[in-house]
Design a protein that fits this description.
Chain lengths: ~325, ~350
Amino acid sequence: MAELTYRNAVAYGIAQEMRRDPMLVMLGEDIAGAGGVFKTTVGLVEEFGPLRVRDTPISEQAILGAAMGAAMTGIPVIAEIMFSDFLAVCFDILANEMAKSRYMTGGQMTVPVVVRTANGAGSRFGAQHSQSVENWCMMIPGLKVVAPSTPADVVGLMAAAIRDPDPVVFFEHKSLLASKGEVPDGEIIDELGTAKILREGTDCTIAALAYMVPRALEAAEHLAGDGISAEVIDLRSLVPLDTKAILGSVEKTGRLYTVEENPRLCGWGAEIASIVADEGFWNLDGPVVRITTPHIPIPSADVLEDLTIPSTQRIYDTIKTTLN
Amino acid sequence: MSSEIPEELYDYSKREPRRPTPTDPEVDGYPIPMDVRRRLYQRQQELRQFEQRAYDLFMQNLVKGTSHLSLGMEAVSAGFAEALRPDDYTFATYRGHAHTLSKGVSPGGVMAELLGRENGILQGKGGSMHLTSVEHNMMGSYAIIGAHLCIANGTAWSAQMRGTDQVTVVFFGDGTTNIGAFHEALNFAAIWDLPIVFVCENNLYMEYTPIDYITAVEHPAADRASAYGLDRIVVDGNDADAVYQVATEVVGKARQGGGPSMVEAVTYRHGGHSRADPGKYRPPEEIEAWKNQDPIQVYHSRLLRLGLPEQDLIEIQQSVATMVDEATEFAKSGQPPSPELAMTDLWADGGSSWRN
């Protein structure tokens, strides 16, 4: 057991898989010599060489295209898109090509690509480098969507994503990079599509993802001080989605709150609210409440940015005022 | 105001016709063995007769949706196919019937796919614009301009990493040269020295608009090659021997580790952009001039000049006609896809479930 930062866990998880599979390669902007602009790939080029960890030009379509083409011939590829906002410039290859290739070829094509990308707010980078776009990917049939919240999950879910034969978008949260956590020794392989209950509770369920998970846990701790017992679920993966964990928790608590960093319209919580309305309605004691970023771009100034994404205080206040 | 606007600025059929460069008489003397030439003729006949049949089946409403024919452009596909090995990779656009057949994919299976039948090569789930056969290394037909040039770099990269000498050939239209992915792909292939050949089938029209009207240079692909350190190569795309000769050179270069090339094959489609398009935006004299330099006629005349008995050519034509009839019967005999196929093969586990 070692304590790692979330940042170091990324390279740690990739290295685990590159040692296991000599075919696994990686490409992206500034990932080799520079070790990544977020220092998430430090040490990889030194260990695996510049042919397996390759710097590319600023050509996101060329990056995802090359990843897809190599993967189509059986080579597993990790492609880095520096900021998740930039998925918009290569969304054709992600959404129209990789995602649909197997289906529209009658099952002929396999595309084992992991698209890693830095997601989320908190860095005062403004509207084009701070978005949470997991919902962009969730809505595309054929993409798996993963967003870990702890270093151990980064390592285990990275391994699961790399070993998965389907395209996976792997969201690394910028504001979690410096966070620390224990990572067990030895090979770690997690499972996609499994949520984790991080805190047991009986009065309400809080479903959260990535950077919203520590905030949900913190809010739950404050609520406990008020005698409210909140259960916190870290979804970890949006596709596949662990609906059993959500529905099971709601059956126990009778209330559901989603905490989403994506802007409000068509955020992932809307889908979960819909599922719970369909299948868990009679277990609900009150409305499902979504706590989200408003439907606005992310502003740059710290005061404004802090107002937009759900804060611990907002989570706490919302639950406190709506639970009964 | 509108009366002052010259008509040729929006009615392109009024523009000066762009006529084909006459067939180069020296090509007759290229050292291409007669058995190769016979195959080139046969391939062009297959592509021509297959697509004519596909067109007839549209007219009978047996083919639904859209379809993009390459009638008149057969020499490009045939010429390159003859220069490739079975383990080489190819990529096509939505105008990909010819390139799929040229890689040896079953004509019956392709025809059945156009008809949306379960015995189609994609089980009826892809259709005309997505023809793919992984077992033939025909790595797909891509219906959104640009992306597949980037994807083709990936199979070339794979061959480079695995240390094989497989070459990737990616076909695209003139319209593709104005999208960003084209430029990203060329730069990427050049810096990584990938074993890939970019083949622009310049049929002079980006869908309904003349390519020269919306492109900064005369030759949309070849005139951009130098920006990526590549040679400027323009070939008569209506002459299968000329294409084959160039293809042999650039494929050979890529196979020997010489890196990427780009070839612009100038050709013309006999019909419109797609099923819905009668192609009226083209000057009638222009269409006439290109039909007079039809690649199959060009090739037929050459083979006669080179001494192949006419009877041989008739036999080739007839055997191809039989093959196309059989392909049509195979396609028509197929059933509509069974309903459960709609929910299969989204994921590698064969299903489409996104939840537990």
